[in-house]
Structures are given as structure tokens and as C-alpha cells.
Amino acid sequence: MLSKKTKYGLKALTFIARSEDDMPVQVGKIAKSEQIPQKFLEGILLTLRKAGILGSKKGKHGGYYLRSEPSEIKMTDVMRVLEGPIAMVPCVSLNYYEKCDDCPDETLCSVHRLMVEVRDSTLNVFRNTTLADLSSVD
Amino acid sequence: MLSKKTKYGLKALTFIARSEDDMPVQVGKIAKSEQIPQKFLEGILLTLRKAGILGSKKGKHGGYYLRSEPSEIKMTDVMRVLEGPIAMVPCVSLNYYEKCDDCPDETLCSVHRLMVEVRDSTLNVFRNTTLADLSSVD
DNA sequence: TATTAATCCTATCAATTTAGTAGGGATTAC
DNA sequence: GTAATCCCTACTAAATTGATAGGATTAATA
């Protein structure tokens, strides 16, 4: 299951991308419009800022803004920040590889085989999708 | 993350598929060979039997066997039984569709868009992979 | 028929994760 | 200086996961 954190995060990014002018967008506005608990959303946007995807401005008239063009923000990055590793098992993770304790030979492991395929196909989607795709109004 | 249940289930199915003769295979044998807690595995195989993927024979010399040829056992079915719906959100699930409470228009929802793509690509893998693929020794 | 070896079934449990709440500190525009 | 806003930490309830425990049922065989 996709976590609420990721779901909310994606919706928030989309909301920001869709707000045309480049004024920072306030958490409160996003929370209200997208029906997300504000305090929860605060934490999520903070994570996205620390990961370099969002920038922020404090104080009155502050808020969050995109650090790059929507078309430059890849889902691989967003998903890794929000949801964690894309692979379903550490032994097929590109960025967080870990050998299984059991499993003497990965080439013979059926789980490994299947999960490599799933990882590659999911990765293919995320690599070819940007925030611009998510937020277009087609 | 892939659950242990699914991981163990896949390994067990592979083990059974690889045991050439068509004698039933005992839980204890699988558990020992694959390093899976036996009692835990019992429950998993029971689930697979109730789903019609495995058959069982009770009593002495009993055990579990495949109900179909490995090449006929699709990962779509196995994964749905072990891991649940393939879609990451109910609003894109083919078999367990549920509308989101929020989200007035799915066609405009960025999460929906992205998750449809992920579902389709994952489904594509599972539809084209059978237990025979997992258990071959190539 | 008694024994043994299996599956089958239910209940329980500890650890972890998730989703959210609470309270306030720090910063900036006006 | 005050209001609005992001920033940070700590806490909590509920659900899920990954088991474990104990035994009931069934079947082969000596």
C-alpha cells in the first residue's frame, strides 16, 4: 500500500506545481484544498525541503516552492524521498542493497528473480514520469 | 516492502515445483531447506491451499503439491493471494476498487495517474511470469 | 488397533510502522 | 511589535507483521 505520507506529498507537490505564479504556497492553503491534516502535511513538506525538492520561505507570506521546473522533477526522486527504496526487497535495491541472510545464491532465488523484474518495470515508470506529467490538466 | 509471508510463500512454491517426483512435499522439509519458521510456513501453505493453488494430503506421508503445472501458475494469482491487491491504492485496483473519499475527479488526481501506470507495469510482469519461470535453473 | 507423522485450526503476543496530535520556537513582513 | 508562517521534538493510538503455542484431525503402517 502507498502510505498516506506519499499520497499527501504527491498531492501537495502537484498543488504547488499547478499554482501558476511563483509565489510560495502556504501549508494551510494546501491542507485545506486537498483535505490533508495540516500538522501532518507540515512534516511531509519539511522532508521534501530537506531532500532538496522544495524550497521554503519563513515568516509572513512565506511558504513552499519548487526548486526546479516540474518537468525536471522525476518521480524516482520524489518516491525515494517519500516512500523509501523502490525495490520491494533489499537484495534487489540499487541504492540500498543488502544481501539476504539466507539465500546462498541470488541467481537461483525465485524471489530475487521476480523482484528484479518488478523493480525494473516500476523504475521505468518513475524515470519517465515527472511532476509536470502529474500536474498537467490534459 | 514485500512481506515475509509472500517471500516465504514464493520460496515454498518454488521448492515444491523443483521437487521433480509428484509426491507431496512436507512443510517440515521446506521449512528446513529454506530456513523458514515451520509454524509460520504452515499457515502460509494453508492459505495457498484454500486459494486453490496448492493441494494437500493429510496424515503420514502427506504434504502439499501443486494443483496445476508450474507453467500454468501465474504470478498475478500467487501475488494476490499472498500479498493482496496489486494496486498500491484502492482507487486504481481492478479487483478491489474503492473510490477515495476526497478526490472529486480521478482523472485530475495526480496520485491516481501515477499509480495507474505503476499498476499496469507491475501487472504486466506478473501476467507474464509463471512459477515455471521462477523455478527454472537457467 | 496403537503409534506416528502429517495437515489443520485458533488464539495469543511483541515489535514495528503508520497516521496523526500537541505544543511551542524561530523567522519575517508589515 | 504583532501576526503569520515555517520549523522542530515528543507523544500516542491503532493497525500490521512475524511470529509462537497448543492442540484437533486425519491417514499410513507395524
Automatic annotation (TrEMBL), chains A, B:
Q: Name one GO molecular function term.
A: DNA-binding transcription factor activity
The record's listing under SUPFAM superfamilies reads: Winged helix' DNA-binding domain
> InterPro entries of this UniProt entry?
TR_Rrf2-type_CS, Tscrpt_reg_Rrf2, WH-like_DNA-bd_sf, WH_DNA-bd_sf
> Pfam families under this entry?
Rrf2
The record's section on PROSITE patterns has: HTH_RRF2_1, HTH_RRF2_2
Tell me the Gene3D superfamilies matching this sequence.
Winged helix-like DNA-binding domain superfamily/Winged helix DNA-binding domain
Q: Which residues cross the membrane?
A: none
Q: Which GO terms describe its cellular component?
A: cytosol
Keywords linked to the UniProt accession: DNA-binding
Q: Can you tell which superkingdom this protein's organism belongs to?
A: Bacteria
> Under what name is this protein listed?
Rrf2 family transcriptional regulator
